[in-house]
Amino acid sequence: MNSIINPNESDTENTGAEESGKITDDEIKSAILSIMESRGFVKSQEELASIVGCEINENVQPQKIRVLALELPRVEVRVLTKRSSREKPSNCPSCGKPLKALYAKNLLDKKVIVALECERCLYRGTLKSFAPFRYEFTMRK
Q1: Tens digit of pLDDT for each residue in 54-94?
Q2: 15 domain residue, yes or no
């Protein structure tokens, strides 16, 4: 009995088993939508990650949950900020996109930056209070 071995085939019978066992971003997004539809509001990314992890039987990083939730138009991600002595960010701490400066005129009629805002997500920080400390998730109507 001679057997011909195809060099394109691997030793294991199902090489896609490892890949098929991995949860996709679309499955995580589906779980986020399902949870948000039933709850309406979740108070932190850690809580949402825990709930999603239970639903899909897989641990998911809270940061990944936040990034994927930002891609869902029906889910609103609100960024709560706190005071920080660090340098103000140039990119959004929530989604990584460049921040837009918001200006106002002072008493000397000079234009000054009063806040930083992200056009992609709902991040908005003042010049003193810009460090994110909690992300809240709400289902849009």
Answers
A1: 999 999 999 999 999 999 999 999 999 999 888 888 899 88
A2: no
- Supply the pLDDT for residue 21: 66
Residue 110: pLDDT band with limits 50, 70, 90: very high
Q: What is the mean pLDDT of residues 16-32?
A: 77
Residue range of the domain that includes 118: 23-139
13 lies in some domain: no
The answer as to whether 121 is a domain residue is yes
Rounded Cα–Cα distance for residues 21 and 77 (Å): 29
Overall number of domains in the chain: 1
In a domain, 112, yes or no: yes
